[in-house]
Design a protein that fits this description.
By secondary structure, this protein is mainly α. The protein has four helices and no strands.
Length: 71
């Protein structure tokens, strides 16, 4: 994701579930190239982190965070 994508970038940063880059074609292409240059173990780690994160994001947890933020 790009560094200006708000909460998505923060989630990726905290969970190491992907790459964060500048919102321009060269930076995005470089991030994609970095993924292609990863070995199987590195790719597996990113995949495991992303899958774990996807399982934790749902409306219940999002609403809980929103409600708690306004208490």
């Amino acid at each position: 994701t790009c560094h200006d994508s708000g909460e998505v970038a923060e989630i990726v940063r905290k969970t190491s579930s992907g790459s964060i880059c500048s919102p321009n074609p060269y930076s995005i292409a470089s991030a994609i190239d970095n993924l292609y240059s990863m070995d199987d173990e590195q790719l597996n780690q990113v995949s495991v982190s992303g899958n774990k994160l996807a399982g934790e994001i749902n409306w219940e947890t999002i609403l809980d965070k929103l409600v708690l933020a306004h208490l």
